[in-house]
Amino acid sequence: MEELNKNQIVLLVLLVSFVTSIATGIVTVTLMDQAPPAVTQTINRIVERTVEKVVPGKPPPPVIKEVPVIVTEEELIVKVINSATPGTVRILSLSDGKADGQNDKQFLSSGFFISPSGVIVADSAAILAATSTTSYQAGGLAGGQTVPLTRLESPPNFIFFKFADPPSAEVKWSALALAKTPISIGQTVVALGFSDRPDINVSVGIVSSFLSTDASTTPLVMTNAASAENQGGPLMNIKGEVVGLSKGSGLAIPIETIATALAVLKQ
Fold this sequence. Notes:
- The structure is a single chain.
- By secondary structure, the chain is of the alpha+beta class.
- Among the domains are: about 5-55; about 85-165, Thrombin, subunit H, CATH 2.40.10.10.
- About 30% of the residues lie in helices and about 30% in strands.
- It is built from five helices and twelve strands.
- The protein has helices at about 5-35, 35-55, 75-85, 125-130, 255-265; strands at about 90-95, 105-115, 120-125, 135-140, 145-150, 160-165, 190-195, 200-210, 220-225, 235, 240-250, 250-255.
- The strands form two sheets. Strands 1-2-3-6-5-4 form a six-stranded antiparallel β-barrel.
- The longest helix has 29 residues, at about 5-35.
C-alpha cells in the first residue's frame, strides 16, 4: 500500500465501494424474496410514500409578492375630476323676455346630483337673482341633454331641484358620494363647476378656516378653491367625496348642512 500513489488509492476505494454496493443489493434482493408477504408489502408502502414526498405529483404553488404602488396627489385629483364631472350640471333659466314670445335660455348656476333619486342642489344667490325666470332646466347631462326641473322647498343658502317629469331611459345622472367625516383645516379640496361657458372649470386649493355668521348655524368653509367660476358646484376631497357646495368668493357650505336639509325634505 505504501507504494500506491494518490490516484491509485482513489480508484481502489471506488472499486471497493462498487463491489460492496453490488453485494448489498444481491443480499437485499435475496432477503426480500425470502421475507414473508406482510413484510414485503410494508417495505413497498414505505418506499412509495417516500417517493411521493420527494417527487410530488403537483408543482408547488407560485410565490406571490406584494409590490407597493405609490399614487401621487396629482393622480388622485385627476381621478376626482373624472368621477365628479358626470354628476355636475348647469342650471338654466327659461324666461319670456323676448318680444316674439320665445323663451330665452340663460345660465344661472352650477349644481350637482346629491341623491340617487335625482335631486340636484345649487347655490341660491344667482338663481334667486333671476327674477324673470319662469322655469328651470338642467343642462350638461350625458349626451348633452337638457331636462326640465322643479324647485323644491329649500333653506336660504341653497336650492333643491328635481326632474319636473320622470326622465326617459336615455337620461343618465350620477349622484356624488357625500363625505361622512367633517372637513378640516389644511385639507386639500377640489372645486368643480360651470360658468357661462360649456366646459367645466376646476380649482384646487386647501381649507384655510371656518367663518361663523351666526352662532345657531353651521360655519361656512373658507377655501381658495371656491370661486365665481364654480359657484354652486361641488367641493370635493381627494377621496372623491363631496365636502361642500361652492358659494363663490372663497366660501362653501359644509355638506353636513345640505345633508340635514335633504333628510328633512325626504327626497
